[in-house]
Design goal:
Strand content of chain B: under 5%
Radius of gyration of chain A: 26 Å
Strand content of chain A: under 5%
CATH superfamily of chain A: MetI-like
Order of helices and strands of chain B: HHHHHHHHHHHHH
Oligomer: heterodimer
Number of strands of chain A: 0
Structural class of chain B: mainly alpha
Radius of gyration of chain B: 24 Å
Shape of chain B: globular
Helix content of chain B: over 70%
Largest interface: A-B, 42 and 50 residues
Largest sheet of chain B: none
Number of domains of chain A: 1
Distance between the termini of chain A: 58 Å
CATH class of chain A: Mainly Alpha
CATH topology of chain A: MetI-like fold
Order of helices and strands of chain A: HHHHHHHHHHHHHHH
């Protein structure tokens, strides 16, 4: 083997130092997505919470099946002495009603299963609205700069300064309660925090060479924003989305708890917990405890998953949320 | 410093003005004003009575007349009168504020102590059993909706304790400090812990992260090399530098809650600003709602200014202008 061919190989492959060889092989040819996904798969707590979330989703989808198996409809009221005591109090867990009954003699288990539908629908849909608006506004503010940026940034500061719950209650009580109203109000109130994060990220990459290159090739602002910039800020957006879902679920439950959320008789966790306030002091602990547990397990699972997603996709970790 | 304060107060006033306009528009567009006159006059009322009521409250006038009237009163320090209760909004707010203040003050002390101490322990002994326990607890309480924790507290410490002959805590209500300091304290223990535990989680995580960053700095190694005690290194050198994000979060949280800790107040039947707000909103008592919103916004704006000013004291590198 001649010296020159050795030199040629060295030039063609500026080989990595030996120590890094192993690590380099591990990430070789894998997209950031693939790497994040693999890191997430190794996170045991996150995987357990995924399993829990899948179970809750299945419970929501198959709520009618659960109702059929136990033979009680979600709004079916069982009169005394089957569903309530003779003096009208809820009945505790038994073979007929596994998690007891509520103030109107309805099956708590079946209502929890149906309540999961509301929590998950609002949790997902309102979060998607929030993130979509926030990302669009943040992107536009940072990309266009100048007056657009300063007025949008002010608007975000202003929205973040108003107590969310106060504004949400006012809006819902003016428009009237309901699932759609709830989704829209929650979805449209929370975007400022997403907008701020996306704006910061876009500001840091919009002067990069590849954006410059796209512009000199004649790409318009929309193409640059959505094809060249957006994919590069998608990781923090995904991380924030996963952490926003439990916040949204709690917001929905809180509004329903305060009586401005989902109107009865639709089953809803926050509303059930509010309703239990009138009977837990007469001993009906199950009506308070089981819906509370359903809500807590759901938010906990989403938070653990969100933490895992952050660790997997955002190497800088906590910085995003300080 | 003076220039900074003047500019920030001016900006704060603009925010307040925008907030009052916003609330006015929301309620004017909604069914509020028309419904109010009906509800006040009663079911049996003739249209003339309803018209008279709505004339007395200026509800039949154009929105700018109503708003102008409101601003005129506001400039005289008067927030108007409740539609329903025969009381001025000033006196309603004056009665509610001490309750919210008592609640937030006690809870804030608890959560800052719990959050910062657990965060420091977690950071100093990273990956130890204590760290894992605190991290897990923080995650649990962070995921816990306030009303769930409050009601579970009531179920255990009020209901279960009371039926077993241990009536330690009242189920709801508020006793003013001036009436009976002991009852005031007793009635607030459960609300304090509810609010503090759900808030402390954020501080545990914030302190841990911030301390871990700071403790990797060179000057901490220098402090250790000088032979300072570990306690001094942790509390004087590391914690002080790590405090900036914690102070920010604390100021904003306290500011936000002083406008009414809505959920906690509703769960424990404490008639503070949050409780008053919910009641006013369901009754569409516009003057009371605007009053609370103004107080809440003032609290947030003042908290922001105080936090910024505090930076300069805490961190010599920060200069205000």
């Amino acid at each position: 083997m001649s010296l020159s061919s050795n030199a040629a190989t060295a030039l063609a492959e500026p080989a990595a130092p030996v120590a890094e060889g192993e690590a380099a092989k591990k990430i070789e040819g894998k997209s950031p997505w693939r790497l994040g996904y693999e890191r997430l798969r190794r996170d045991r707590a996150a995987m357990i919470s995924v399993a829990v979330i899948v179970l809750i989703v299945l419970m929501a989808i198959f709520a009618p099946v659960i109702a059929a198996i136990v033979g009680h409809g979600p709004n079916e009221q069982f009169p005394a002495p089957i569903g309530v005591t003779v003096d009208g109090q809820p009945l505790g867990p038994s073979a007929t009603f596994l998690l007891g009954t509520d103030t109107l003699g309805r099956d708590v288990l079946v209502r929890i299963a149906y309540g999961a539908r509301i929590s998950l629908i609002v949790g997902f849909v309102a979060t998607i609205i929030t993130v979509a608006i926030g990302a669009a506004v943040g992107l536009a503010a940072a990309y266009f700069g100048g007056l657009v940026d300063s007025s949008l940034a002010r608007l975000m500061d202003w929205l973040l300064a108003i107590p969310f719950l106060l504004l949400a209650i006012s809006l819902v009580s003016v428009i009237g309660p309901g699932l759609t109203v709830l989704i829209i109000v929650i979805g449209f109130l929370g975007w400022a925090s997403v907008g701020r994060i996306v704006r910061g990220q876009v500001l840091s990459i919009k002067e990069k060479e590849y954006v410059e290159a796209a512009r000199s090739l004649g790409a318009g602002p929309w193409r640059i924003m959505f094809i060249d910039i957006l994919p590069n800020v998608i990781a923090p957006i995904i991380v924030y989305t996963s952490l926003l879902i439990p916040v949204t679920i709690v917001a929905e439950a809180s509004l329903s708890f305060l009586g401005v959320g989902i109107p009865p008789p639709t089953a809803d966790w926050g509303q059930m917990i509010a309703d239990s306030q009138s009977v837990y002091q007469y001993g009906a602990w199950w009506y308070l405890v089981f819906p509370s547990l359903a809500l807590l397990i759901t938010t906990l699972a989403f938070n653990i998953l969100g933490d895992g997603v952050r660790d997997a996709f955002d190497p800088r970790g906590d910085q995003l949320f300080v | 410093m003076a220039r900074f304060l003047v500019r920030r107060i001016f900006e704060g006033l603009i925010v307040l003005w925008l907030v009052t306009v916003g609330v006015f528009i929301i309620f004017y567009i909604g069914p509020g004003p028309k419904g109010v006159a009906r509800a006040l006059a009663g079911k049996q009322a003739t249209p003339e009575v309803v018209a008279a009521v709505s004339h007395r409250l200026l509800l039949d006038r154009p929105i700018w007349v109503q708003y102008g009237h409101f601003v005129w009163l506001l400039l005289h320090g008067n927030l108007g009168y409740s539609f329903y209760h025969d009381q001025s909004v000033n006196s309603i707010l004056a009665a509610a504020f001490p309750i919210t203040f008592s609640l937030v003050l006690g809870a804030a002390i608890l959560w800052i102590v719990m959050g910062v101490l657990s965060g420091v322990v977690s950071a100093v002994r990273a990956r130890s059993l204590a760290d894992r326990t605190f991290t897990l607890l923080a995650l649990l309480f962070y995921s816990m909706p306030t009303f769930v924790l409050g009601l579970l507290f009531l179920l255990v410490f009020y209901y279960e304790f009371t039926i077993h002959g241990l009536a330690l805590f009242p189920g709801s209500g508020y006793t003013p400090f001036t009436t009976n300091p002991f009852e005031w304290f007793r009635g607030l223990i459960l609300p304090w812990f509810t609010l503090a535990l759900v808030s402390a989680a954020t501080y545990t995580r914030l302190t841990r992260g911030s301390m871990l960053d700071v403790m990797g700095e060179d000057y901490i190694r220098t402090a250790r090399a000088k032979g300072l005690s570990e306690r001094r290194v942790i509390f004087r050198h590391s914690l002080r530098a790590a405090l900036t994000p914690i102070v920010t979060q604390f100021g904003l949280d306290v500011g936000l809650l002083l406008g009414g800790a809505i959920i906690t107040e509703v769960v424990f039947g404490l008639p503070g600003l949050g409780f008053t707000t919910v009641q006013a909103i369901t009754q569409e008592d516009l003057p009371v709602i605007i009053g609370v919103v103004i107080v809440a916004s003032v609290a947030v704006v003042v908290a922001n200014i105080v936090v910024d000013a505090f930076y300069a004291v805490l961190d010599p590198r920060v200069r205000l202008h």
